[in-house]
């Protein structure tokens, strides 16, 4: 992954540069500001610590901040809950999670659950966003990428990614932010490390997004796909953690009721059910 020796400092600098002074009650400063976002001294004042202490924190010379200080810095920069959790983890104050011993194995009950969504796209992802299992509808939607099961590689290396994902920039950004969050949660996951290292080498777009040092979980996302013969399909995905397999996530994408996307998914689900029934009776 080519990790920095000071991930905490890099994360603080990235978020400090994204924090607009006006958002935290400070004057913008007009043309007198030479850097984007907040100055170190301003973060220190807002967090209630000395400017020297905060500078040492960013520079990696202070490696054992208290939970109170980390919380104050996170609040000073108005970090999201995901970003604050990531900040605590980088400061060594939140235990890193360990992936399931066999992250490739999907529990039989979860496999059965996938088929309980006949008019939705449902699939299980690993921490590195490998598709471990999918239902029939998801199989149709992912058919253009047959042979590439990792969704991050699909987005940044597959020739058809920008054709299929109509709003590719938003999907790519959300995926990279979530992958960075997973990298902090599962520092022992070799799949994540190898994936990040590979894409940093070959994809300028991935490198730019990864360099933003931003984190956000995939709780609820909106995706638009365009597929030959099916047209435009709009889905809202909800993400669920699989608690008996830490790191695995179940994603379920549903269309707006009564929409053309709902009609398409209903026909796909019905077709899959009919095929399964014919197979069951030996037809």
Verbal overview:
The structure is a single chain. Helix 11 packs across helix 12. This protein is an alpha+beta fold and 283 residues long. The C terminus is likely disordered. A hairpin with a 5-residue loop joins strand 1 and strand 2. A five-stranded antiparallel sheet has the order 2-1-5-4-3. The chain folds into two domains: 84 residues, lambda repressor-like DNA-binding domains (434 Repressor (Amino-terminal Domain)), CATH 1.10.260.40; 173 residues, Beta-Lactamase. The protein is elongated, with a radius of gyration of 22 Å. The chain contains 13 helices and five strands.
**Structural class, judged by helices and strands?**
alpha+beta
- Tell me the domain tally: 2
Overall 3D form: elongated
Order of helices and strands: HHHHHHEEHHHHHHEEEH
Number of helices: 13
Overall residue-averaged pLDDT value: 87
Amount of beta strand:
5-15%
Per DSSP E runs of 2 or more residues, the count of β-strands stands at 5
Q: How many strands, what sense, and barrel or not for the largest sheet?
A: 5 strands, antiparallel
Within the largest sheet, what's the order of strands? 2-1-5-4-3
The share of residues in helices is: 40-55%
Give the class-level CATH name of the largest domain: Alpha Beta
Fold-level CATH name of the largest domain: Beta-Lactamase
| Assigned CATH architecture of the largest domain | 2-Layer Sandwich
Taking all Cα atoms into account, the compactness measure Rg is: 22 Å
- Describe the oligomeric state of these chains in a short phrase: single chain
Unreliable residue stretches:
274-283
Report how far the terminal alpha carbons are from each other: 50 Å
Protein name: Helix-turn-helix transcriptional regulator
Organism: Streptomyces kunmingensis
Pfam family, one: HTH_31
Region (Disordered): 1-31
């Amino acid at each position: 992954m080519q990790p920095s020796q000071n991930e905490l400092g890099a994360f603080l600098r990235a978020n400090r540069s994204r924090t607009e002074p006006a958002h935290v009650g400070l004057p913008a400063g007009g043309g007198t500001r030479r850097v984007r976002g907040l100055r170190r001294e301003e973060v220190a004042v807002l967090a209630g610590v000395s400017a020297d202490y905060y500078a040492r924190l960013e520079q990696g010379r202070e490696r054992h901040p208290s939970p109170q200080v980390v919380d104050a810095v996170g609040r000073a920069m108005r970090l999201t809950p995901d970003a604050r959790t990531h900040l605590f983890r980088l400061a060594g104050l939140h235990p890193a999670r360990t992936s399931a011993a066999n992250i490739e194995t999907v529990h039989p009950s979860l496999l059965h659950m996938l088929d309980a969504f006949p008019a939705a796209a449902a699939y299980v992802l690993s921490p590195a966003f490998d598709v471990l299992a999918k239902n029939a509808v998801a199989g149709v939607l992912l058919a253009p990428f047959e042979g590439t099961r990792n969704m991050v590689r699909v987005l940044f290396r597959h020739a058809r990614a920008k054709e299929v994902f109509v709003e590719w920039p938003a999907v790519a950004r959300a995926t990279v932010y979530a992958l960075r969050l997973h990298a902090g949660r599962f520092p022992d996951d070799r799949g994540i490390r190898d994936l990040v290292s590979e894409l940093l080498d070959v994809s300028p777009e991935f490198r730019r997004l990864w360099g933003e040092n931003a984190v956000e979980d995939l709780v609820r996302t909106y995706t638009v796909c365009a597929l030959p013969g099916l047209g435009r399909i709009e889905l809202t995905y909800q993400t669920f953690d699989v608690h008996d397999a830490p790191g695995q996530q179940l994603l379920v994408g549903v269309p707006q009721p009564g929409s053309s996307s709902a009609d398409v998914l209903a026909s796909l689900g019905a077709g899959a059910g009919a095929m399964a029934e014919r197979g069951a009776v030996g037809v």
